[in-house]
Amino acid sequence: MEPAMPRDRARVIRRAAIVSLALHGLALWGLAASGRARPPRRPPAFAIDLAPPPPKAEKLAPEIEDLPAPAATAATDPGPPLPAEPAPPIPGIGLADAGVDAPPAIDAGRRHRDAGLDAAGPWDAGVEEPVADAGVADAVVGPGGAAGEGDAGGIAARDDGGLGDGGPLVATAGLDGGSGTVHADPAGDPNAKPSPGTASDLRRFFPPGHQVSVLVRLDRLRDTEWAPRVDAIFAPMPDYRALVGGTGVALTDTFETLGISTPEPADATATTLVVRARPTPPALRDLLDADDGPIAWSAVVGGALGRRAPSPRLFPGDHRVFLQWRLGWTALAQPLDLRGLLGPRSGPLDVDTPTATLPVWLQRVAALEAEAGEPTGPALMATASGIFPRTLPIPYGSGGDLPGPDRATVTLELVTDGFLVRGNVRFPDESAAATAADLILRLRLQILDDRVTAFALGQAGALNAIRNLTIERTGRRLSFATSISVSDARNFLTVVATMVDGYFASRRPPP
User: Fold this and answer.
1) What are phi and psi of 437, to 5 degrees?
2) Is the peptide bond before 375 cis (omega within 30 degrees of 0)?
3) What is the DSSP string of 49-99?
4) Do 296 and 249 meet the contact criterion of CB atoms below 8 Å apart?
5) Which of 121, 164, 286, 394 is deepest in the core (most CB within 10 A)?
6) 21-45: b or e for each residue (b if 16 or more CB lie within 10 Å)?
7) pTM
8) Exposed/middle/buried for 228, CB within 10 Å: 0-12, 13-18, 19+?
């Protein structure tokens, strides 16, 4: 037995060596073959944890320095109470038992806003006579699309009768009753060409006195994961129900562009809505004229007027009407903001209303999409003014309170790995802007040095925005730029959707 042991041991060793050589040979062959023939692996569509390379904050061009403004022109007399406005009869609809409570009393500001038509009612009157100030406000616009307005939210205007011919500069009263004095920021580089939206003030595309304006390029969100998230944000809003109700139609399937603006963020019926639709005008009218929200359409001076009957879709006290003033475009607006356009007209519903007859804000809507740049640029934009406190307490670090701005614009541009974030914040004066810039940069460093806080912000999806932030001060304006990851954006939009739903939950009309 002893002589056999060496032979068995030698056989085992030989087999092990052969197997080892074979495995190594196969491995080497596989590596070589993969290097020759296997196509390169595509990177994942989205890098969840990494934000895209951030842009740098950009220089801003000067805003146009305003001419001396005379006394404010806004009327303070609310006028007589707004009379009831019976809707035209709609077959099969009995308004007396439509199931909607009588509208509540309308405050003085709302009465003045809605009462810009003859007391006899606008729907049986002849073609309206032009009103001297029917052009509303023509906000003074500087390079890059930034409009000058007063610290109190007043807007510079040109008294041009609504024809946009650049009449003398006037000023409207601030939203808080201020004088409306206009102070543009003349500082900046005249040759600066910031990215689309960075220097924008979206309020100039809407009636004067608005505080919050939003632009959504739905065409840039279509067929992405962000489309249903945007629907989730807008679904609780009354105007979402006014557009698509319970049809199950997605916003990105129906519209290319959505503009929303309001002079009173707390008032669900004060919003002005502007959309450019994918369907033809007749098809869109059919969509809007739903069983639970009937609309009577008629030809008027300004195009096709849609008068809404009381319905579950309609908030009590909501006097807004639809107007298709240009093929493809539809607005939901206050009658006062459409003065001169609502008189009856014979002929087809679908017309392009002559530009010269439109209020200035409707003239500008034609360029609303271009404010987001072409062929690429932001998918989401927002401007706010007149809603910020004088100081913003900072519950972290040391350095005091952050001065409150008088206007802020933020934009989000969709890229492969997330969103690029840009915008500008304007302060009452250069001192406030310098203080804010210094405090923001110091807080950024403190947060990044604090591992516990940085970890918590990372979990909340806010750390990338802080880490990638850069600021450029121009006079009393700060331009900013940063980037966020896909995961950050998901967290952010989820929080926004929850906040919006909670806000409107308490404002929904009773069933």
Assistant:
1) -60, -45
2) yes
3) SSPPPPPPP---PPPPPPPPP-S--------SPPPP-PPPP-TT--GGGSS
4) no
5) 164
6) eeeeeeeeeeeeeeeeeeeeeeeee
7) 0.70
8) middle
Q: Which amino acid is at 236?
A: P
Band (pLDDT 50/70/90 cuts) for residue 65 is low
CA separation for the pair 439, 398 (Å, rounded): 9
Of 460, 461, 466, 479, the closest CA to residue 410 belongs to: 479
CA 165 vs CA 137, 160, 161, 282, 359: distances in Å: 12, 6, 8, 33, 12
Which residues, at least 6 apart from 172, have a Cβ–Cβ distance to it below 8 Å?
Answer: 72, 73, 74, 137, 154, 155, 157, 180, 208, 209
Backbone phi and psi for residue 342, each to the nearest 5 degrees, phi listed first: -100, 0
Give the sign of the dihedral formed by CA 454, CA 455, CA 460, CA 465. Answer: positive
Handedness of CA 301, 305, 310, 316 (dihedral sign): negative
Residue 390 burial (CB count, 10 A): 9
Q: What is the pairing mode between strands 169-171 and 477-485?
A: unpaired
CB-based contact 94:304 (threshold 8 Å): no
* Segment 377-423, tens digit of pLDDT: 999 999 999 999 999 888 777 667 899 999 999 999 999 999 999 99
Q: Compute the distance between CA of residue 470 and CA of residue 447 in angstroms, rounded to an integer.
A: 15
What whole-number distance in Å separates Cα of residue 48 and Cα of residue 229?
A: 17
With cut-offs at 50, 70 and 90, classify the pLDDT of residue 435. very high
Tokens of 27: 């491995």
Residue 295: CB atoms within 10 Å: 21
Task: Tokens 């530009």: give the residue.
Answer: 355
